[in-house]
Amino acid sequence: MNVQPSNSQTRDQAPVSQAALDEVCQVLSGILGDGVDVHRCLAAQASGRIGAPAAVQPLIEALLDEDEDVRTDAAEALSELADPRAGQQLLENLLGDPCSGVKLAAIETLAKLQDRQVIPWLRRIVKGRDEEIVWDEQEFFASGWDDWVDIQLKAVDALAVLNAGEAVPDIVAAMRDENAQDMTEAAFKALARMGRPGIEALAGFLDEDSTRLRRRAAAALAGADAEEAAVPLARAFADSSAEVRAAVLRVRAARAPEDGRLAALLEDPDAGVRGEAVRLLGKRHPDRLPALIADASKSVQVAALTVLAGWQDFPADEALVTALRAKLGDATVEVAATSAVALGAIAPQAAPDDLIPLLQDAERPVGARLGALQGLARIGGEKVVEALVGVIDDEARPIRLETMSALAQLARRGAVWPNAAGEALLSAVRGGYEPEADTEHQKEAAPKRPSPQAREPGPAAPAEDEDDTGAFPTSTLSAMLNDAPEVGRAMGLPDEGIELTPTDMERLAMAQRIKGKKRMPLVPKVVLHEDIRRFAARVLGDLNHSDVARELATAVNSADTEVRLAAADSLARIGAQLDSLPDSVAEVLITAVATADRDLKLLLIRALAAADGEAAATLLTEQTCDEDSFVRAEAVRARAKLGQVDSQIETLLGDPDPSVRLCAAEAVAGVGGAGAIEMLVDFALSFEGYHGRQAARLLRGLDAARANARFIDVLRDPQRKRAWSVAIEALEELNSSQPVRTAGVADRERRA
Length: 752
Hints:
Blueprint: H1 18-34, H2 37-50, H3 56-62, H4 68-81, H5 87-96, H6 100-112, H7 119-127, H8 139-143, H9 148-161, H10 168-175, H11 184-191, H12 195-205, H13 211-222, H14 230-237, H15 242-255, H16 271-281, H17 289-292, H18 298-309, H19 318-327, H20 333-346, H21 352-360, H22 366-379, H23 382-389, H24 397-413, H25 420-430, H26 439-445, H27 452-455, H28 476-483, H29 485-491, H30 502-513, H31 528-539, H32 546-555, H33 561-577, H34 583-593, H35 598-608, H36 614-623, H37 629-641, H38 647-651, H39 658-671, H40 674-685, H41 692-700, H42 704-715, H43 724-735, H44 745-751
């Protein structure tokens, strides 16, 4: 099998026919009826997620299973199916099944079905453990958790889904029960969905002394669309607490940003609320922004400037531009920085004359200079590029790195190639910013490196001729008592001090050997010209040009390890975008693999996935046999991209390393065909089903119907019962009508 994969080949398969789906459900139903407990659980889960109507009746029958895990999975599956036929049995399970998982699923499903016969029972559950409902009295002692609290919350939510306004007094009473759980947050959200009775109950909480209760009630009202919420919500907008007003603002701005009452919060007396209002609503009120950048609060100014900075075509006038220029010199760094970005956004023609001097002023805070740099990067142009090139070797590392990122963006946006921004980066990676080779001068200027002893400060050793006139203290307490003997007498200690035992001395010696905590510097200490080369090599990966690839290939042989890694990584990114790398680049990569360490080799192999030619193919074939599993996996991916999927890669489906096996399976699936389906089915069943779900996902994109038939054959063979769990999960993946959570082995362990 050595075929170039095709994007159109077996990628958009027709859905499985209804007849085939019914056959899957029939097989699962048989297992659900008489399989072992693990298989029954998996069959119930799969039946629910496949979603076929034929699965409903077997799942209803499974609600009477002797195993509570099976009943729980069946109830959850019926919740996903939401079929009215399950209503009566689910209600019976809610009342008579002690398993909390079954009760939770039953409540959810009955609410989905709008089955109003459950409302009286839900009201009784909200009030407490009703005696007419069966509960597992031993569950708390077995697990340490009272599942009834979850059931109570689920009942409250279900009452909201059923719009049971008559249950509002019960919910409010449960919230006010001081001996019960705090359910206010969930209950308030439920009340907001329960029409007039719920809204009136929420309004009552706006009179509470507790800011927390008022905040939660106000947030719930802000999310309600009912007309009844208008009046109490107006009260919440005017609440005396800034927390409450901020909560209303956040919810209402997300729910109904057109609400006219929100605009008043742009003038709220609390700076935090004003700032939040500007961030959330600023774009809806552009006429207010010029005034807000002069707000008394710096945080509000920053919020308004941030909105302006993100507004490319804001209708600016001379007064606004003048105000932004004035703020470039603000003592608050964040104000100066956001002003610079905003100026670049709304006045791109005039801004460079102000931002370039700010960028070049090394006396200004780095944050302000970064703002100027970001503003200039959005403008672009020859003048801006020239200014950026001038600070590539700036002493401040954040300026250097941000400058090279900006140059890469400008080079990529340029209409022609080569361009000045790209040439600056190429010069940087070549070493254009390295200092002159004045070795003797560098040696003299370099600070003396202290010896290891000098770097580890400690007590000086006594001189050999120094007399030892006193006994060395045997403990800290003894040392203290030498200067204050009266303390020892007051404590009733002997005059000669306290002798430490050998164990005490051993522990003290160990404590003295413990090194102090190391602190990592916020900005690493790096050599300037090395830092420039390394980062230039990294950002050049954003420029998909052959001459950039050639320059990076030269850097792959650099003496600097980080430059080599950055260059190889960039070549891999460029190769992913180009049809193929130049032959000269491929030759360099192939040669470099021979002496590369593992980290570099992985990147070189990744880059060679875009290399044509027999030499690259031969090298990649050799690397699929490497002793390092990471190298094998990367080589398989590279060969798959080149369409070199052959028997050697198929053999790797049995590799000892899981990641290599999966890479080989993806490569086989990329080629497709009947042979691939057979191999992937066998792969799914191998290694105790370790890759069962992953293999099924690959098969779903090939020929789900054919794969179904193979897994059904497994389930019909009693001799292959060890593989039934894998086959059930594979059928679930192949036929599920919704995303399947990956559980597999974890689920089987839970059932064990």
